Amino acid sequence: MPRPPRKAAPARKRVFSRHGAAEPKDPPSGERVQKLLSAAGIGSRREVERWIRESRLKVNGEVPALGAKLTARDRITLDGRPVRLHTPAVKESRVLLFHRSPGENLDLKAATSRAAEHLKLPRSAGRWLAIQPMPPVDGGLEILTDDGSWAHRVSRGAHALTIDYVLRMRGPLKEPLVEEFRAATDCEGEEMSILQADAKYGEGFNHWLTVTVRATRSAQVRHWFAARGMIVSRLMRVRFGPVHLGHDMPRGHSRAMLAGERNALMNEIDAATAATDAAVSAPAAAADAAAADAADAADPVSPAGTGRS
Predict the structure, then answer these.
(1) Which of 93, 180, 222, 280 could join 147 via S-S bond, C-beta 3.0 to 4.6 A?
(2) pLDDT tens-digit profile of 288-299?
């Protein structure tokens, strides 16, 4: 007796948006609002946190809590305008080296779906984010990316990198002042780490000084010399860890960071961060060991089977 034919399985119903395209899949569970919007190039994590505190960012009509989990189907608005997440399966992040002129405004807040016109940056699907940007009065090497997660990782480890600044000083620059700067450890109560300072004494009105620092902002360097009557007429960042501002990139121009430069930067950040963590944890471990020894000395135990002395 022939078997009855099987019933065809019902076709799965696909959900389409109002534009006719299939709705995107939810991102993996556990994605926090700061991480998700940063990875999509909407803004940095700190910016997202500020938007939440100022009640400018809302999810489904309500202000989310910091660290709240989002899905691609949540309705997100910023200042009342809808925010759409672009989360392709494979996203090729982009990193640029940009030579900024002193005094040029690095305004990236308006560069969302297109590049900032005045900076002549290439187009990006997200928004360009600046990593450890220099103050507007200064210039030199700027690192830009459209990958919020990568920017967050580099920014967290930037304090462990060595940075080179080139300063143009007005007036006489004496060797005793340079020696005092090399030995400086703070500026107005804020810690500084000066690793090297090399002066080029000119015969004219201007003198040049190249300094290597760690965890020291350019504004601190300016303020230190200003407090001693010296005017820094120009300050440029020429090195960020292993990444150098080459002479082949004029002011106002940018280029993609090479794969070798990216690998070298991340390797140096990982190594420097590990060394810093080890240096911080070593005194704590020694203190714990000393406390344990002191506790053992205060509470001696006699050999097994004999009880306490």
Answers:
(1) 93
(2) 777 777 766 666
